Amino acid sequence: MSDVPGAPADLLRSLTRAERLLSRRLGAVLADDELTTEAWRVLCLLADGQGHPMSEVSAEASLPPGTLTKLVDHLVDRNLVFRRIDPLDRRRIRAYLTARGRREHARIEERVRASLADLGVPADPALIGQLDDLIHRLDPTRPRDHADATGSRH
């Protein structure tokens, strides 16, 4: 990319490569449970128990609304997610984890953490904070995310 250490192209290349490799490793862990990384992102977002509007889930999971709807339909069929009309805005639909979804999320999260620990890659709060700061600088309108390397939000 560049002969100058620390060049912007190096940052982009390193972040892209790390994301691809982490997604591949995560995909291998999730395959045992017949989940995709996109489904995992949805489960992690919903794991906070607050329920989220489908538009927010779409944005956070980086999925177009139609694709998200099909994915959530699949998660509903597996009894991992349910949808309800938003009590404050009846035009919106909110998604939540079912009790089974919460159990499955916790179980799979342990497997993801173990896979990362096998690599010697802890969910480093400092690195996560730096990435969260970078995301906020690139998109200041977006609320700060406090997700760890497994995808779980705290």
TrEMBL record:
Pfam families: MarR_2 (PF12802)
Any one GO MF annotation of this record: DNA-binding transcription factor activity
Domain HTH marR-type: 8-140
InterPro entries: HTH_MarR-typ, MarR/SlyA-like, WH-like_DNA-bd_sf, WH_DNA-bd_sf
GO BP annotation list: response to stress
Keyword entries, A-Z: DNA-binding, Transcription, Transcription regulation
Name this polypeptide is given: Putative MarR-family transcriptional regulator
